Amino acid sequence: MPEPSLCFEATPALLEFRRLAGDANRHLNTLLVGLETLRGTSPVRPNNLIVPWSKPSIAQEWSDARLFALRGAMIAVVDGLDQYLRMLSQVEGLIESGLDGVLNARRLPPDNKKPSMSQRLAAVDQIYPSVMGKENIAAAGLLAMWRNRFVHRNDKTGLSLAEKRRLVSGAAYFKSEMAGVDIRALIQRFENQEPPTLSDLGCLIASTHRAATALDGHLLFLQAGKSYALALVKFLIKQEADPSACLEEVFQHGGKRSAGKIHAWLLDNGANHNPVNRKAHAPSVTRRDLAAVLGVGRNKASEVLGIPRPNGQ
User: Fold this and answer.
1) How many CB atoms lie within 10 A of CB 134?
2) Cα–Cα distance for residue pair 90/88, rounded to 1 Å
3) Which of 79, 221, 270, 276 is 20 to 30 Å from 13 at the Cα level?
């Protein structure tokens, strides 16, 4: 019988991105189904709708409402990807520290401009080549460009020749993996300043999800289980409104009680304790080693995690 252990299969960053992207997809589908249903039925108005409203009477109004829903989904997914990259930089040792500026979209020399999503993903790809897939990187960049056109009306950023070639060279991939999507037609709609179709958007979101999932798995593969567990606990505590107070609460009793709290917390943030159904090559730490490091009192936890106790206790 193997010793009980935890393996880490996803980062909190990926879990949050999945939640945001999943919500965007689900809500988009609900809105589109609602619009189609409304076409042939009498409207039911919310009780708190206090402004005048009438059912769309022309085709353009229906199209505009549909486009509004598509825009909302694009904004949510791209903002989720932005948050994913930022969160990766906040877990110590998870990703190359030299990427900190680009992951957080800071203004960089020599032009002092914020990097685009395409540039941020390209920088990550330089350090971790062939992990995310060139087609997925290009598709995620295109999704961000399309989103920016909706948010910033004057944004005219287009695909570079290299980005366009990467997408076109992946035509067979997109057709087989993304429900028959014609990537050339998708690119043409973007270049013609047209909104994406529902299948266009589904393709770009799925590609973005694949890129993030592949990167996440690779970064975790490079981790040592015990050191990652420490870094993750430190990250989670620092995410709290009052990290010092959180440290006091978690490590108040020390021993098995503190270790048990940490164990449950890690399970909610990408860890798995199932001894059979787990990802191969995921970093792991035994329950015994976890308890030895984090089954401690407040003073030791403050020392190990580098988080001060309240009022300098």
Assistant:
1) 20
2) 5
3) 276
Contact 151, 159 (CB under 8 A): no
Query: How far, CA to CA in Å, does 216 sit from each of 17, 134, 222, 241, 311?
Result: 11, 16, 10, 26, 37
CA torsion angle for 242, 243, 245, 251 (degrees, to 10)?
Answer: 160
The whole-angstrom separation of Cα 81 and Cα 21 is: 9
Report how far residue 221's alpha carbon sits from residue 214's, in angstroms, rounded to the nearest whole number: 11
Q: Note every long-range contact of 178-182, with CB atoms under 8 Å and residues 24 or more positions apart, other chains counting.
A: 178/202, 178/203, 178/206, 178/207, 179/203
Contacts of 50 (CB under 8 A, 6+ apart): none
Q: Give yes or no for a cis peptide into 110 (omega within 30° of 0).
A: yes
Answer whether 82's CB lies under 8 Å from 105's CB: yes
- pLDDT by residue for the chain (313 residues), tens digit each? 678 899 999 999 999 999 999 999 999 999 999 999 999 999 999 999 999 999 999 999 999 999 999 999 999 999 999 999 999 999 999 999 999 999 999 988 888 889 999 999 999 999 999 999 999 999 999 999 999 988 887 788 899 999 999 999 999 999 999 999 999 999 999 999 999 999 999 999 999 999 999 999 999 999 999 999 999 999 999 999 999 999 999 999 999 999 999 999 999 999 999 988 999 889 999 999 999 999 999 999 999 999 999 876 6
Q: Any idea which residue has 């990408």 for tokens?
A: 270
Domain boundaries, the chain: 12-46+59-221, 225-312
Query: Cα separation of 81 and 166, whole Å?
Result: 20
B/e letters for 109-120, b = 16+ CB within 10 Å, e = fewer, are eeeeeebebbeb
- The structure tokens listed for 149 are 């056109």
What is the enclosing helix (H) or strand (E) of 285? strand 284-286
| Neighbouring C-beta atoms of residue 278, cutoff 10 Å | 16
